[in-house]
Amino acid sequence: MPTPIVSKGSTTWNGDLFSGSGRTSLDTSGLGTFDVTWKARAEESGGGTTSPEELIAAAHATCFAQQFSLELAQNGTPPAELRSSAEATFVAGEGITGIHLTVEGQVDGISAEDFQRIADSASTGCPVSQALKGTKITLTASLA
Q: Which Pfam family is one of this chain's hits (predicted)?
């Protein structure tokens, strides 16, 4: 049985939701601390601060690429390269309304139809997609 791996992140928030700000940390890896604000989340993204949705998008893009690479290898067509991204849409008062995954891959010996079929399987099968089952997840997949 695999050993459970626990990953940790944390945030310190100061002030109220709309005028406050915080710092979120990738505690397990120690790879970074990032500023977070309501403005970056609900009004205007970018500008040197991040949001929970950006962090979810990065996690989803990574998880999907890992799952897709596994399923392609199990198909006998391991990828030379996969470039994946995720866009998480947040609407204030509604929450995360959707996530769109995009992948472009260099995979020898696979048809476009099989690439799409396996991408669809990986999109629903990756653990982050499983955790986000209540969210509409869409996918665009193409061979390079």
A: OsmC
